[in-house]
Amino acid sequence: MTAAAALLLAVALDLACGEPPAAVHPVVWMGSAIHALKRRAPRGGRAAELLFGALMALAVPCVFAALGAFVAAQIAPHPVLGVALSGLLLKPTFALRALRDAAFGVRDALAAGDVPAARGALRSLCSRDPSELDEPALVAASVESVAENASDSFVAPLFYFALFGLPGALFYRAVNTLDAMIGYHGRYEYLGKASARLDDALNVVPARLTALLLLAAGWLRGADARRGLLVLRRDGGRTESPNAGRPMAAMAGLLRVELEKRGHYRLGDAIEPLRREHIDEACRIVALAALLFAGLAAAALAATSLGQELWR
Question: How many C-beta atoms surround the C-beta of residue 241 within 10 A?
Fold first, then answer.
């Protein structure tokens, strides 16, 4: 029961308080460690960069998972303390409230007619260059990011917590942070290739689970779940990422809109024009999907714990 209670506590802390200060934020510590290793990475040789990047992709997540395992072992004999500390340490591995706040930053700037401010706010949601995006494109990018990050920033960390406890959530978050910092084309392509591939592998199940959760939440909210399923099946594999397109396509169908990243992909159908209100609805659907998953994960953990007790 301790793991289930810790999960629910972590979700409550996120909704009530948001992110902890940077000084005590494990993801900030992960970023600092990755930055320090990145400065020491070899330059100019693909093989050397690939090898160093592979070592980074294993070392950083394993170190943080080991720290999580050490803490979990120390608090295991103390149920109340265990719930409190596990909840506090699990919370920074996901960021539902921060995701909503970042999306609302774009929405509020658009509501004020300040497109340059909306472009600036979009940088908190994704790495896309917003300098040439008009209002519909800013709405599309926001909706896409909210849907995609429902997996990366919520479902996946809790999925690995449910499977492997605190070490699993920290391992996933470290891999995802590596991918965000070095796992992209360009300067760090070879250094970050192992991190990007590992992140892809870890997100195969959570991304597809997120898409199904979005469909369920959309159906509960009266969105077009049938079209959401149609677009998920038709367009979910159209993105370069093997995972990101799944929740984005589901959301496009639910909202009956077209989500396009010019030159890369086009998801859904333009049945309705993109409006800033779609950001609100996307956030509501994601929030409901997140709460559904938190409840299911907590129930599964509680049932597992109860079963173990009965078999003793």
Answer: 16
